[in-house]
Fold this protein.
Amino acid sequence: MKALEVDHIVPRSKGGTDDITNFQALCYSCNATKGNKDDTDFRSWSEFYQTRDENCLFCSIPSERIVEENELAYVIRDGFPVTKGHTLIIPKRHTADYFGLEQPEINAINQLITNQKLTLETDDSTIEGFNIGINCGEVAGQTIFHCHVHLIPRRRGDVEEPRGGVRGVIAGKAAY
């Protein structure tokens, strides 16, 4: 955990004032990186992360399906699992795919992936590996256009030849 500092949204060197409306809290690293180089106002980002689409399946997932969550992402078990324990990690903010995520969302998703890996391994000693996958775009196989990460537990013998892993999404490309 890093100490918070008071940042001037519009730097004083660029005409910013010491008025409370020009202040925001930033961690030491973010404040030092920002310096007087920009006037980004991060105060409204909490609203940004609340973006939802009322017609999106993942924006309105029932709370009883959620097995873990943090401030920016949540976890469910896949409704159509390819293996037992197949898990989806989903940002709460509606964004079409991985390339629309902000760094804090990526961090939140990675935290949940790590937690779920440990949970799944603790609950099932037959798990010996994992595939992590993200489909971005219709031609890549994406069917729900709200970013989601697949965490797929793998067990010895669950496929005849596992070599090549995710390369197998293109027929004949797994073996090399």
